[in-house]
Amino acid sequence: MNSAYLTTTTEAIDPVFMFIFGACLVLLVGITAAMVFFVVRYHRSRAPEPTSQATGNLWLEVVWIVLPTLLVLVMFYYGWAGYLALRNVPKGAMEVTATARMWSWSFAYANGRTSAKLYVPVNKPVRVELVSLDVIHGFYLPAFRVKRDVVPGMKNYAWFVATKPGSYDLFCSQYCGTGHSAMITTVEALPEAEFAAWLEQRTGKGEPPGHELLEKHGCLGCHSLDGKPGIGPTLKGIWGRSETVLSNGAERHISVDEAYLRRSLLEPNADVVKGFQPVMPPFAGVLTEAEVKAIVAYLRTGGAAAAKLDGRKLAQEKGCLACHSLDGSRGVGPTFKGLFGAKVTVQRGKTKTIVTADEGYLRESIRQPEAAVVEGFQAIMPTDPALSDDEVTALVEFIEGLR
Amino acid sequence: MTTVQPTQPSFWNDTGKTGLAAWIFSTDHKRIGLLYFYSTFGFFLVGVLLGLLLRIELMAPGRTIMGPQTYNALFTVHGVVMIFLFIIPGFQGSFGNLVMPIQIGARDVAFPRLNLFSWWLYIIGAVIIITSLFTGGGPPDTGWTFYVPFSSRTGTNVSLAVFGVFVVGFSSILTGLNFITTIHRLRAEGMTWGRLPLFVWSLYATAWVQVLATPILAITLVLVMAERLLGTGLFDPGRGGDPVMYQHLFWIYSHPAVYIMILPAMGVISDVIPVFSRKPIFGYKMIAFSSIAIAAFGSLVWGHHMFTSGMSDTAILVFSFLTFIVAIPSAIKVFNWVSTLYKGSISLDAPMLFALSFILLFSIGGLSGLILGAAATDVHVHDTHFVVGHFHYVIFGGAGFAFFAAMHYWLPKFYGRRYAEKPAIVAWALMFVGFNVMYFTMQVLGMKGMPRRYYDYLPEFATLNLVATIGSWILVAGLIVMLVNLFRGLFRGEPFVGNPWGGATLEWTTATPPPTENFEEEPVVTHGPYDFRGTGIP
């Protein structure tokens, strides 16, 4: 492949289509023409008696074994060569992680930004890591001739490059249940500058730089902001908290202050909070002084309190809106519009009851959807154990706002 | 040939049990054949009705007549019914049973009681499948492929449905075993392997696939049940399992299963074309050998269903290669059929029209299969309507039309009455046109990127979906004409006696309808199955 010119997936695949189609068309027309000609020419009205009793012809049969064999071997070769173009990701491709769940897509970019549509810059190859949270889905971009299954527990990827700005369909191609055909979104290909601007734009506006740094360095993978225990202690309310730490095997009590946070960032294993493993990598030499200051300043404000969650965005990203509409129309699940405070008939166990869709009910429905299903709907809503309490609160508040 | 003067009563009038019991407890292969025919063909009609509803739903975007959950259940049941209850048991059970023992000059199959037991297993399995639709969490909504993890999570009645398929599978294994033994042991004197009708050769190849591949489906379905009922986690990545392994296990059976569906159809075509051309089949040995080659190589190509699944590129290389290899014996058959027409004396009766259209439709299906076999092009059209179109071209246009050919060709032999020719040709023409309008359009839709199993679709696919739905109406109209004409004819039509088609195989030498033990006395075979010089046709 010429490095100055990038072959797109479409350009790699379409010639293979043309070749196989062409060959097949020639064969089909040949077979049909011969058949029709024979039927007309040797119809009993013209040929009352058969004029041959031939039972075979070795050479003829050898010819039509050898020729098709050669033809299909050529097809096989082109098919394989084209396929390799789908597997070999060009160097310097932008990485995006696509997360599929029943029945929505969410895309995460290197800087932590997430979106429900796949935004890409034009003329830059994009490598998409495919992650499934539940069943098998299929990542399908017809315009780019790209498809790959999204299999739970498996590291699949696909790549493509958009050469023209525009909006391209993205389908789920592997059947995944009720909302399968609604599990569609788009690839939005933007000119490079526009894409860069989009990527930097923060939707949860006013988020302090400290929060961004925590995302960027992957801190939040182990340290939650909402009080949930993780691999490391939560950052919620960490400022001023009393902790028992182990320093060189000796227990001591400390109160979290700037000096402690600083040391924990740069030499995390010097004082490890009791009950946790000393597994955090040291950030000395990774974080600049300014970054350390920003993080400490952010944690001083209490972390979670500063990161106000956007319920609407959350509902979209978590896939709620694939089934629950916002405009009152009937979907796979009840609409969110006017749901809060409404009286609904639900099936609880074996009994039907009428409940008010209040905060308690909504919380339960998010955590244990099958416990009380609204009449007329299927008990098919999945749960998301990764949803934090704060996120549930944000979702409930969002639904309340749609009253 | 002299006209046979029957001294024994036909199998319809033999003594013994009467009423329903004379049928459902009969060990006569002809009665069992008709039991299979009516039960499998009945399920075919159910499947057609479901397919028609699916097409009506897809007539326009958005909700037309049903919701998404109903749609998903309907396409699942359509697939399960058509595949496991019609086309897999259909050929072997109906025409295999009716015709094969007579074609080899036997009085019955090797194990007549086992034969009856196989039908009972089939019925029990079918009843279990039907029960699963109306009990528990409702009809399964997994697609006929039962892919995990979805099938282990959904609340619908998957466990019972796969158990039904499991039972039907045993019926298939036992029939295969029975036929292999019959063809090996019960051939009449002079019926050498080189004189076997090609329909028998195709049944023989099919029977081996049934015996060898079906147990793998059985164990796979048991594992799905274990996954659901016991939570074994064999396919759950969270517990060290692998969902892609399920796909391997499923397709190790289910790809060879498409050869269970198509091989007997090819056998029918190989029997019908020479008769209506009055000319020996061109390349008998090559056609017989290609049936065996298809059965053998066809068992090694399952991975082409999984090119996008994430299995290794090495596996894709190997499976794509083998897929192209298996195309060759099919191509040989097509060339040989067409060559048989050359310098013949061709009569376009209904069985012949169905057979000739089989060649065309099967070729379109087979050639579109090359696009699916090539790794590069498969990725784009995999899991789209292109695959749906391809599959229906091969299995409906192929196996289905061959089944219709067999119905017109052989059923009169067993009823002693026949259908009217003109309506049969009208019915064929309607079905041929409707079929192509419907499925060719679906292949185009797939090329444009419409995924399969989509309840709803984007506006850009609307026009073609409407066209496909209209095609389905033409097809069903033709089917209704065919059914009325055929069954009216079988019960009240013109008498059908002797050897009106001019066939040279053994079933045309015995009385119509045949007596219980098929022949007045055991036949001695002196010529090949397509040697028409000895048949004394005017």
From TrEMBL, chain A:
<keyword id="KW-0479">Metal-binding</keyword>
<feature type="domain" description="Cytochrome c">
    <location>
        <begin position="205"/>
        <end position="303"/>
    </location>
</feature>
<keyword id="KW-0560">Oxidoreductase</keyword>
<dbReference type="GO" id="GO:0005886">
    <property type="term" value="C:plasma membrane"/>
</dbReference>
<dbReference type="Pfam" id="PF00116">
    <property type="entry name" value="COX2"/>
</dbReference>
<keyword id="KW-0408">Iron</keyword>
<feature type="transmembrane region" description="Helical">
    <location>
        <begin position="16"/>
        <end position="38"/>
    </location>
</feature>
<keyword id="KW-0249">Electron transport</keyword>
<dbReference type="InterPro" id="IPR002429">
    <property type="entry name" value="CcO_II-like_C"/>
</dbReference>
<dbReference type="InterPro" id="IPR045187">
    <property type="entry name" value="CcO_II"/>
</dbReference>
<keyword id="KW-0186">Copper</keyword>
<feature type="domain" description="Cytochrome oxidase subunit II transmembrane region profile">
    <location>
        <begin position="1"/>
        <end position="90"/>
    </location>
</feature>
<keyword id="KW-1133">Transmembrane helix</keyword>
<dbReference type="GO" id="GO:0016491">
    <property type="term" value="F:oxidoreductase activity"/>
</dbReference>
<dbReference type="InterPro" id="IPR014222">
    <property type="entry name" value="Cyt_c_oxidase_su2"/>
</dbReference>
<keyword id="KW-0679">Respiratory chain</keyword>
<dbReference type="InterPro" id="IPR008972">
    <property type="entry name" value="Cupredoxin"/>
</dbReference>
<dbReference type="Pfam" id="PF00034">
    <property type="entry name" value="Cytochrom_C"/>
</dbReference>
<keyword id="KW-1278">Translocase</keyword>
<comment type="similarity">
    <text>Belongs to the cytochrome c oxidase subunit 2 family.</text>
</comment>
<dbReference type="GO" id="GO:0004129">
    <property type="term" value="F:cytochrome-c oxidase activity"/>
</dbReference>
<dbReference type="InterPro" id="IPR009056">
    <property type="entry name" value="Cyt_c-like_dom"/>
</dbReference>
Automatic annotation (TrEMBL), chain B:
<feature type="transmembrane region" description="Helical">
    <location>
        <begin position="34"/>
        <end position="54"/>
    </location>
</feature>
<keyword id="KW-0408">Iron</keyword>
<protein>
    <recommendedName>
        <fullName>Cytochrome c oxidase subunit 1</fullName>
        <ecNumber>7.1.1.9</ecNumber>
    </recommendedName>
</protein>
<dbReference type="InterPro" id="IPR023616">
    <property type="entry name" value="Cyt_c_oxase-like_su1_dom"/>
</dbReference>
<comment type="pathway">
    <text>Energy metabolism; oxidative phosphorylation.</text>
</comment>
<comment type="function">
    <text>Cytochrome c oxidase is the component of the respiratory chain that catalyzes the reduction of oxygen to water. Subunits 1-3 form the functional core of the enzyme complex. CO I is the catalytic subunit of the enzyme. Electrons originating in cytochrome c are transferred via the copper A center of subunit 2 and heme A of subunit 1 to the bimetallic center formed by heme A3 and copper B.</text>
</comment>
<keyword id="KW-0813">Transport</keyword>
<keyword id="KW-1278">Translocase</keyword>
<dbReference type="GO" id="GO:0004129">
    <property type="term" value="F:cytochrome-c oxidase activity"/>
</dbReference>
<keyword id="KW-0472">Membrane</keyword>
<keyword id="KW-0249">Electron transport</keyword>
<feature type="transmembrane region" description="Helical">
    <location>
        <begin position="423"/>
        <end position="442"/>
    </location>
</feature>
<feature type="transmembrane region" description="Helical">
    <location>
        <begin position="314"/>
        <end position="332"/>
    </location>
</feature>
<feature type="domain" description="Cytochrome oxidase subunit I profile">
    <location>
        <begin position="17"/>
        <end position="526"/>
    </location>
</feature>
<dbReference type="GO" id="GO:0006119">
    <property type="term" value="P:oxidative phosphorylation"/>
</dbReference>
<dbReference type="GO" id="GO:0015990">
    <property type="term" value="P:electron transport coupled proton transport"/>
</dbReference>
<feature type="transmembrane region" description="Helical">
    <location>
        <begin position="246"/>
        <end position="269"/>
    </location>
</feature>
<feature type="transmembrane region" description="Helical">
    <location>
        <begin position="201"/>
        <end position="226"/>
    </location>
</feature>
<keyword id="KW-0479">Metal-binding</keyword>
<dbReference type="InterPro" id="IPR000883">
    <property type="entry name" value="Cyt_C_Oxase_1"/>
</dbReference>
<feature type="transmembrane region" description="Helical">
    <location>
        <begin position="158"/>
        <end position="180"/>
    </location>
</feature>
<feature type="transmembrane region" description="Helical">
    <location>
        <begin position="74"/>
        <end position="99"/>
    </location>
</feature>
